[in-house]
């Protein structure tokens, strides 16, 4: 199905007439749209009314119309006529040059009337009439009153004598003129000038000091200069190279005499003093402690001292403070001092401050328990924190199983709760061939862990002892450890006493 101007179409396709499957799918063809011609004007637009144009589709024949907007008037100005003093005028108007309709009518402007100006009398002359006083319009010029003619008076004749000519000016024959207006009435014919009678004026040569003159001429009759003489500038002297009369020095002028090669005149001029030729003897700069001198200047020609050397005072030291250094426990310090930042000289020497030495603080011993290690007594410095004597680790206490207590049961004594100071046990012998560890401290036997049952000594003192079988080597290990701890503690105490 073909597409039209306003409706879409379909391309050719195919399908199976039995099963209905589409074999070649039809595709949509978009609407073609109208193909409008250039249009036909059915009604022309005017200045005030719209027109109409009709367009026809060249494919389907459908038509459409479009409004042609009114053109509007084409204005033309109708120039007015200005009013005069006596006649009316017209204002500007406007009409349409196309349809002729009047858009703005011209209006009548009334006459302006005369503007009166007063006129004085004009006297009559020898040859021209005059006018009486009157008035006129200053706009249009019309005479409003007066202005009557006054007849010309005619010339008043006067006789004139002959004027002889000169070298440069013409003369006149005798005649007459009007006394009133001065016009020539008769005679007065021109007599030509006679011209100059020339006399030569000789040239004057210039000299070294005086100007000269060119040749000229003068009239011998009237004395008028006909060709003026022009000034020739003086030549000026032509001086030679000169002879030195007096030699100049460093401070005094000399003299030189020049002679003019043209006229022989001479002149003497001063030779400026040569001035000193400066040489410098370098000075010595001032130091912190010694004065210096400025440069000395002298003339290398005459030897005179031009500028004497001046003493420059010593500058004095520029003091810089050398900060002190505090002494520490192990290192010496310095007192505050000073030096000169210019020459480096020491102004105030820094004195050595001896090291302060350590401030010893005791770190107390910590006794071991069955659960924690102990520490030996140590020392450190309370100022710098340095460890002087390091604390050593004391191993934890070991628990030991006790022998049969006589009732067929083993007894284990745990005195870990005891908080007293560690005591040093000593070994003693009993009559039953047993080794006894006696606590010689406060009488508290709980500081020694013993696997055997405690019993009172036979001496009746009430001191508790621990009996150990002499043939059992394994039960002696805890006691050996306790002996080692006691020895270390004794060493610490002796060391402290010696330091004190």
Please tag this protein with its features.
single chain; about 500 residues; mainly beta; four-stranded antiparallel β-sheet; three-stranded antiparallel β-sheet; 1 helix; 49 strands; about 5% helix; flat
Helix content: under 10%
Q: Main beta sheet: strand number and arrangement?
A: 4 strands, antiparallel
Question: What portion of residues belong to β-strands?
Answer: 25-35%
What strand order characterises the main sheet? 46-47-49-48
Q: Structural class, judged by helices and strands?
A: mainly beta
What spatial form do the alpha-carbon principal axes imply? flat
Write down the Rg: 77 Å
Number of distinct beta strands? 49
Poorly predicted segments = 403-472
Helix tally equals 1
The end-to-end distance, rounded to whole angstroms, is 130 Å
Average of pLDDT = 82
């Amino acid at each position: 199905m073909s597409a039209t101007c306003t409706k879409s179409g379909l391309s050719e396709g195919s399908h199976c007439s039995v099963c209905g499957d589409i074999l070649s799918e039809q595709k949509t063809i978009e609407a073609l749209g109208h193909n409008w011609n250039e249009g036909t004007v059915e009604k022309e637009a005017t200045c005030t009314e719209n027109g109409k144009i009709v367009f026809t589709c060249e494919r389907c024949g459908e038509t459409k119309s479009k409004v042609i907007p009114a053109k509007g008037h084409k204005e033309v100005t109708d120039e007015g006529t200005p009013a005069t003093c006596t006649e009316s005028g017209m204002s500007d108007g406007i009409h349409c040059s196309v349809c002729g309709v009047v858009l703005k009518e011209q209006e009548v402007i009334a006459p302006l009337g005369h503007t009166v100006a007063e006129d004085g009398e004009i006297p009559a002359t020898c040859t021209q009439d005059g006018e009486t006083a009157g008035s006129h319009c200053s706009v249009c010029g019309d005479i409003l009153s007066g202005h009557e003619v006054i007849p010309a008076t005619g010339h008043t004749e006067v006789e004139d004598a002959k004027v002889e000519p000169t070298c440069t000016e013409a003369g006149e024959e005798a005649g007459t003129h009007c006394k009133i207006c001065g016009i020539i009435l008769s005679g007065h014919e021109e007599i030509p000038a006679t011209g100059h009678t020339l006399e030569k004026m000789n040239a004057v040569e210039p000299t070294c000091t005086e100007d000269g003159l060119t040749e000229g001429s003068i009239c011998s009759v009237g004395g008028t200069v006909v060709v003026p003489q022009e000034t020739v500038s003086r030549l000026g002297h032509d001086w030679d190279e000169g002879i030195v009369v007096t030699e100049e020095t460093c401070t005094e002028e000399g003299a030189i005499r020049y002679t003019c090669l043209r006229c022989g005149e001479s002149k003497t001029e001063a030779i400026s003093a040569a001035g000193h030729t400066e040489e410098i003897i370098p000075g010595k700069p001032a130091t912190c402690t010694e004065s210096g001198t400025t440069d000395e200047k002298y003339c290398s020609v005459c030897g005179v001292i031009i500028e004497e050397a001046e003493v420059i005072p010593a500058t004095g030291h520029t003091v810089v403070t050398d900060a002190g250094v505090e002494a520490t426990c192990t290192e010496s310090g310095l007192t505050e001092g000073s030096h000169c930042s210019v020459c480096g000289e020491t102004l105030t020497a820094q004195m050595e401050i001896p090291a302060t030495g350590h401030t010893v603080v005791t770190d107390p011993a910590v006794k071991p328990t069955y659960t924690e290690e102990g520490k030996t007594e140590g020392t450190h410095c309370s100022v710098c924190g340095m460890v002087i004597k390091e604390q050593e680790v004391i191993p934890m206490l070991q628990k030991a199983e006790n022998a049969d207590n006589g009732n067929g049961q083993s007894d284990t004594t745990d005195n870990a709760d005891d908080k007293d100071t560690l005591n040093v046990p000593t070994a003693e012998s009993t009559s039953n061939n047993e080794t006894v560890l006696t606590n010689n401290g406060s009488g508290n036997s709980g500081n020694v862990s013993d696997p055997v049952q405690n019993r009172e000594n036979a001496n009746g003192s009430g001191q508790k002892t621990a009996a150990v079988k002499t043939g059992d080597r394994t039960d002696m290990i805890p006691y050996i450890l306790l002996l080692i701890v006691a020895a270390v503690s004794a060493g610490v105490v002796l060391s402290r006493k010696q330091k004190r």
